[in-house]
Write a structure and sequence with these properties.
heterodimer, A: mainly alpha, Four Helix Bundle (Hemerythrin (Met), subunit A), 6 helices, 0% strand, B: mainly alpha, Cytochrome C Oxidase, Chain A, two-stranded antiparallel sheet, binds protoporphyrin IX containing FE, binds copper (II) ion
């Protein structure tokens, strides 16, 4: 059951009006940003430190994946807005987001497969190392986002009050991951 | 899937099963005690390791009974090899910095008291909170496991400098699986701290009770909040560093290992990596980490000082501001650990400047403490003594920082015991004093029983004198050129220093033994101590307006409403010279 119902006056009683789920997500976004900033700085330093940096031709599928992920950002936003009026249509858009997210992961897996068939493994060169590290870690975060959506979908079945904060939080996280992916793609593409 | 992110605090009923109550507890109070317990185990382990090292340093050829059992290869016949000395050194540092100085003042006390001090019933995400402790606990087990593998613990120090830490078994004992375990352990530790920090931040922002504005937060809560902001960003950098280190070690990548490295006659199959990169990542975390250890202690000590001086600090707001400034600046100074790393000497100059700047807020805070204590009518109970002790060792250890911050002086001092003296005083001992002050202060609330004050005072004086005897001479040793990280001192120029080393070792044994008084007091009082009243120190923050120990939901169903700031000491209250934060009594008329 909604735990909100246990304490009807909680919201009005507290001086802070935001929900912990939403604050929590923003805090998580800050931490993840910091981690990827650390990876990016490492990439820059590593590039300068050796003469073994060979640029990597990115598999074309990555661009398709980008489009899919950005589309899923739109669908989750639609779900969030629909949710205010219609639970059913919100669930529909969430399922669509889930599917797009899964498609993105499949696409990423295909990209890794392509690189391997070209003989580019994790330890082959610093570029391939960074490619795998950054894309795999991003994919893990995407996986976390998918779990969050499954959770939200399951919650929409029961607690109606509650879902609003949860879907807002999940949507913020998802938009962030889309933005992060575009950033990573640019970093990996650029011939620094 | 569960309520991990449900938006209210009161989301789980009081647990009934033993497992839910004591082991996989969601209650922030139990989790706080678990962190504290883990820190307590770690601190005694770490101390025993330091005894072994101090013994070996001065009685190099004497066997230590039983050491052979710990490691056949590392201590054949009970005499440790130089490599095993380094293994113990690594474990000592790692246990102390991560599992003691981060766990106790921040995660331990913070978990227990932050929600109560803001009038909440629990943390924002109790399940994340439980996970945070258990991940930390697994990290501890993984670290300790390295004692029991044939390889032994790694020899690369708590800073795990690459390439030594990255190349694997060719480089020495402990660098095969021992170092893997270390890297995995620290990676897990980061995850635990990230979950914890996230919780602290969301809780402070969103779960404050009615009337608890940010400016009415007690200073200890401010300190935990600032620390969680520092920790969030610092551990978010150490985690990637650990990932890259593990990959270098097990997957054959070359992030940290340069080309053409020959170790033990083996050409390492790596190319182009940058050992300096590890140092940058590590110290970008490492310097903020020292503030993660000390800022909560500053908060705890300020909190206790006000309750024992019976008046607010000269300016609490300036202390908040200085702590925030320290938080920001702590991210700009990491290079002062790398003056001799081979980075561009110009960078040394660049890092020296903010390092000197960061001494300003630290000095301001100390001046405010000292200025406030001056002329105050102190109540000299044990928590107050340890708080005063904190101020003393923090100053004594901080002063050496000014020397180290100058690249030209640091060239001489960097590799010596001077640095060891500096950080043990300013971080190790100071934060431990903060923990001890907090323990004596909050134990009545946590257990419902008072600790013995006489034993506490004896413990204080022995410890206070002891730590000065141990760590002050380190500075002189450093000036005399005594190198650090050596397992024996055989060079001629070090011979005159040996008597001083002997003195330090004996002081270390005695001071360590004095901690048994504390342990005894802790355990005895837990079961036999005098029952604690609700507010034994006549303090004002919310934890003192509930029972000792607090009920499961902290306030027994009462919705506390905060009426005033936390520093109402030296006023004309209904119950004495203080007014509780949630007390309904009116403000005393001005001029009273
Ligand atoms: C007064 C301000 C401070 C200044 C200017 C300062 C400066 C420095 C410098 C320059 C070093 C590097 C020395 C070297 O490796 O050659 C150093 C080391 C260190 N400092 Fe400080 N420090 C200050 C305060 C603190 C505080 C408050 C803490 C902890 C709470 C701390 C903990 C440490 C530690 C742990 C190390 C050595 C780590 C290692 O090499 O293993 N310092 N300090
Ligand atoms: Cu530092």
């Amino acid at each position: 059951m909604s735990s909100m119902a246990l304490q009807p006056d909680r919201g009005s009683q507290s001086p802070a009006q935001t929900s912990p789920a939403l604050s929590g997500v923003w805090v998580a976004v800050a931490a993840i940003t910091m981690s990827f900033a650390a990876f990016t700085s490492s990439l820059i330093i590593r590039q300068a430190s050796g003469n073994d940096w060979r640029h990597l031709a990115l598999p074309g599928i990555l661009y398709l994946n980008t489009v899919i992920l950005l589309a899923s950002s739109l669908t989750v936003e639609t779900a969030r807005r629909k949710g205010i009026s219609s639970l059913a249509s919100m669930r529909f858009w969430l399922h669509l987001t889930l599917t797009l997210g899964a498609a993105f992961l499949a696409g990423q897996a295909f990209a890794w497969h392509r690189l391997r068939t070209e003989g580019l493994y994790l330890a082959t060169s610093p570029n391939s190392s960074f490619f795998y590290v950054l894309t795999v870690l991003h994919a893990l975060h995407i996986l976390g986002g998918l779990c969050a959506f499954i959770y939200v979908i399951r919650r929409t079945a029961s607690a109606s009050l509650w879902r609003v904060a949860a879907i807002d939080a999940a949507a913020v996280y998802w938009h962030f991951l889309a933005g992060l992916w575009v950033y990573l793609l640019l970093v990996l593409r650029t011939r620094l | 899937m569960s309520d991990a992110s449900a938006p209210v605090a009161h989301q789980h009923a009081a647990p009934t099963g033993l497992l839910r109550k004591y082991v996989f507890s969601l209650d922030h109070k139990m989790i706080g005690k678990q962190y504290y317990g883990l820190a307590l185990v770690s601190v005694f382990l770490g101390m025993i390791l330091s005894w072994l090292m101090r013994f070996h340093l001065v009685w190099t050829n004497a066997a230590i009974p039983g050491l052979r059992l710990l490691s056949k290869n590392g201590a054949p016949g009970g005499v440790m090899t130089p490599e095993y000395y380094l293994s113990l050194l690594t474990m000592h540092g790692t246990l102390m910095v991560f599992f003691v100085l981060t766990n106790a003042p921040f995660a331990g006390f913070g978990n227990y008291f932050l929600p109560i001090q803001i009038g909440a019933e629990d943390m924002a995400f109790p399940r994340f909170n439980m996970m945070s402790f258990w991940v930390t606990f697994v990290a501890f087990l993984v670290l300790i496991a390295s004692f029991f593998i044939p390889d032994g613990p790694p020899i690369s120090g708590w800073t795990a400098y690459a390439p030594l830490s990255a190349v694997g078994k060719d480089a020495g004992p402990g660098l095969a699986w021992g170092q893997n375990l270390w890297a995995i352990s620290i990676g897990l530790f980061c995850v635990g701290q990230l979950l914890g920090s996230l919780n602290f931040i969301a809780t402070t922002l969103d779960l404050r009770t009615k009337g608890m504005t940010l400016s009415r937060l007690p200073i200890s809560t401010w300190a935990w909040f600032i620390t969680s902001c520092i920790g969030l960003l610092a551990f978010a950098v150490l985690l990637p560093a650990c990932v890259l280190l593990i990959l270098d070690r097990v997957a054959g990548t070359s992030f940290f290992i340069p080309a053409g490295l020959v170790i033990s006659d083996h050409l390492q199959p790596h190319s182009g990596g940058s050992p300096l990169l590890w140092q940058h990542l590590f110290w970008f975390f490492g310097h903020p980490e020292v503030y993660i250890a000390i800022v909560p202690a500053m908060g705890i000590v300020s909190h206790i000082l006000m309750a024992s001086m019976r008046k607010p600090l000269l300016s609490v707001k300036v202390v908040y501001g200085s702590m925030i400034a320290i938080g920001f600046l702590s991210y700009m100074v990491w290079g002062h650990h790398m003056f001799l790393s081979g980075m561009n000497p110009f960078s040394a100059l660049v890092f020296s400047f903010p390092t000197l700047i960061i001494t300003i807020p630290a000095t301001i805070i100390t001046m405010i403490w000292i200025g406030s204590i001056y002329g105050a009518n102190l109540r000299f109970h044990t928590p107050a003594l340890f708080s005063l002790g904190f101020v003393s060792v923090f100053v004594a250890g901080g002063v050496s920082g000014f020397f180290l911050a100058q690249p030209s002086l640091d060239i001489y001092l960097h590799g010596t015991y001077f640095v060891v003296g500096h950080f043990h005083m300013v971080m190790g001992v100071a934060a431990i004093f903060g923990i001890l002050a907090g323990t004596y202060f909050w134990f009545p609330k946590m257990s419902g029983r008072m600790m013995n004050d006489t034993l506490g005072k004896i413990h204080f004086w022995l410890t206070f004198i002891g730590v000065y005897c141990i760590f002050m001479p380190f500075h002189f040793l450093g000036f005399a050129g005594n190198v650090r990280r050596y397992s024996t001192f055989v060079d001629d120029y070090l011979q005159p220093l040996l008597p001083l080393h002997k003195f330090i070792s004996i002081a270390a044994f005695l001071t360590g033994a004095a901690q048994l008084i504390f342990l005894y007091n802790l355990i005895y009082s837990r079961f036999k101590g005098a029952p604690a009243p609700e507010n034994p120190w006549e303090a004002t923050s919310l934890e003192w307006s509930t029972t000792s120990p607090p009920p499961f939901d902290n306030f027994g169903g009462r919705h506390v409403v905060v009426k005033r700031g936390p520093n109402e000491y030296g006023v004309d209250g209904a119950h004495g010279d203080f007014i509780m934060q949630d007390s309904p009594e009116p403000e005393p008329a001005a001029g009273d």
